[in-house]
Amino acid sequence: MDSIHIRTRFRSRAFGPSIAACALFAAAVPALAQTTFVPPVEPEPGMWAFDGELNGKPGRSLQIDMQNGRSMIVSYLGYRGDGSAVFLQASGQRATDSSAFQGTLQEFRNGPAIGAGGSGSGGELAATTGPIQITFDSATTGTVTLPGDVPRRISRFHYEEYPIRFSNQFAVYGNFDRFVDAVVPVTLDVKAENGVFTMKYIHNGTAQCDFSGTYRLVGGGLQSEGKVACNSSLAGPADGTYWIERFTVSRAGMVTGRMYLARDAVRARVDFAGACLRSRGAVFAAGGRPGCSTEDLGLNP
Fold it and tell me: Which of 104, 108, 149, 199 is 20 to 30 Å from the Cα of 30, by its Cα?
């Protein structure tokens, strides 16, 4: 699904009272989107690939890093016309209200060489190649225009196979003072396999929502979209749609994500965070469950 379309789709106001229980997902304040403001996209740092150029052979890529929400460094790793390798770099500040980056690509020389023991002076400017512009339409997708080239689609490069991390139960927590005056845990029962995504939201054993749709792995996380059905108006829409982005599970079993719920023209945004619950093994004496093991997270060799 086009990420630009998704971001535009969810600009409307929040559900109001009917979505209150869905805010139990929330890990950040405000829990529900109350205005039409859509913040600038923050790209996921790391290696980005040119769409359509991944063929298993050494190719070109972009290394993107951003800090403090604005400062960005972009490194281009590619080739000259004669086939020799080239390294270019641009840096600068993004505008506070923009999802785009503009900079000047520069080439350097005479830096420390491999085998030189790290001695020697730093590199020096060799040439200025020209302007680069990147427009991000999601945390993991965008369009880049290189000097003298046409705009090309890029995406955060994904190479690790880890959907097993998402197929677990998670205890999600948040500060719910504005809704129920307590910190309340919510259980998410998730399964992601062969492109099919299902999730059940359970609160106090009664209120629940069932999610079903498709997913894809992007960067270090998962995106999913589909339909949602809840058994109570306090839990969410009885018949609506959802979009999940930045759904990540770390090697330590910590989960974070962002969800958009929709029914007709009514929209809501929910942020969530929590921990993976171990599916096997003993239960704590106090009734709790330990965190996920390396086996649960698919980390065993």
Answer: 199
Collapse the DSSP code of 24 into the 3-class scheme (helix H, G, I; strand E, B; otherwise coil) and give the result.
helix
Beta strands, E only, 34-146: 46-50, 61-67, 71-79, 85-93, 100-109, 124-136, 141-145
pLDDT tens-digit readout, 29-69 = 333 333 344 568 888 888 999 999 988 889 999 999 988 87
179: left (phi over 0), alpha (psi -120 to 50) or beta: alpha
User: With the C-alpha atoms ordered 176, 177, 178, 184, is the resulting torsion angle positive or negative?
Assistant: positive
The model carries a pTM of 0.59
Give, for 6, the enclosing helix (H) or strand (E): helix 3-9
- Which pair of structure tokens corresponds to residue 96? 């506070």
- pLDDT one-digit tens code per residue, 83-98: 999 999 999 999 888 8
User: What three-state secondary structure class fits 152?
Assistant: strand
CA torsion sign for 282, 287, 290, 291 is positive
Eight-class DSSP state of 228: E
Is 166 within 8 Å of 192 (Cβ atoms)? yes
